[in-house]
Amino acid sequence: MLETYFVRPSTVDRIRASWIAPEVERYVAWLGEHGYAARCVLTRVPLVLAFGEFARAGGAGGVEDLPGHVEGFVAARVARRGGERDGRRQVAREVRGPVEQMLDVVSRSPGSRPGSLSICAASGGCGPGRSTAISISWRVLRRISDGSGSRGLRISRPRS
User: Fold this and answer.
1) Looking at residue 84, what is its pLDDT?
2) With 100 labelled, which of 28, 65, 93, 132 sits at a CA distance of 20 to 30 A?
3) Phi and psi dihedrals of 127, rounded to 5?
4) What is the pLDDT of residues 17-33, one digit of tens each?
């Protein structure tokens, strides 16, 4: 799928050499399936690769560690660009959006809705005769977690 967007074999090789290459390829395939323009893919891939390298340098050992590095990456990109307050907000949105979208795409289980996380209500897991899965938007989880939606509630990913 990468060859559809990147003409130079060296570029494709550089992407595939990244430690998050499988996730990037899955994200590119998802973008293609959802009709995103080639220009969009060409601007998002370098951004998510830079995010992966930033996270790796910050101690990420696996894909499950990536969400903990989003805010640091966004802050670093905003600081690098500088500018007026409104301009910084715009840069933050332009950086955060694709990164969170990639994380959403690669963390989703097959068949689940875009922008959601499936959670099982009981510790026994989901399945026939078990609890019902609940779909919750990542944006809602972030709002709850950062305190803007509810006081004192913190959301964290389960440790494996």
Assistant:
1) 74
2) 132
3) 155, 180
4) 999 999 999 999 999 99
* Residue (of 50, 51, 52, 30) closest to 40 by Cα position: 30
CB 96 within 8 A of CB 74: yes
State the pTM of this model.
0.67
In angstroms, rounded to a whole number, what is the distance separating the alpha carbons of residues 53 and 62?
12
Q: Is 31 exposed, middle or buried (0-12, 13-18, 19+ CB in 10 A)?
A: buried
Side-chain-facing half-sphere of 119: CA atoms under 13 Å: 14
Q: What is residue 119's DSSP assignment?
A: E
Which helix (H) or strand (E) segment holds residue 118: the answer is: strand 116-120
